[in-house]
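call fold(seq) -> C-alpha cells
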Amino acid sequence: MGVQDRIDSVIKEGIPAPIHNLRFEDVSGNDVTSSLLNEAAASYWVVIYNIDKSNKAMITEKIIPFATEMRKKGVNVYCLIGKTSADFEKQVSPSMDVVHADETALKTMIRSNPGVMKIQNGVVLDKWHYRQFNGDN
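ret:
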C-alpha cells in the first residue's frame, strides 16, 4: 500500500475555552498574570492550592532544594499559592517567588497539592504530581 497525502480542513471553528478571573498577584498585590504567562524562558511553577492540606514534607525535602538549585542555574521558580500563611511564605521565598492565585484555578491546573509544572510562554511543557517528582526533573 502506498503513502497518501493527508489533507486537513476545518469544518467549523471551535469556540475558545473561556478562562474567567485568572489572576496571579505578587506578595504586594500587583497583577503579574501577563508576565508569568508570557515568560519566554522555561520556568517552574510549584502549585500549592491549600498549604493546610498539602504534603509539607515533600515541599521541604524535595521541592525547596530543587527550586534552590534551579535558581542557581538562573531558572525562575514560582510558588503559586491559594490558601497560605505568612510563615510558609517566609520559608519558601528564598528559593521561589511567591505568587497568590485563586484556589480553584490552581486546583484546575494540577490536582496534586503540591504539584510542579514546567511552563514556557504559557504552554505546559510538563507537570508532576508530588509523588512522581524526584527533584531531578
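The first strand starts at residue 25 and ends at 26.
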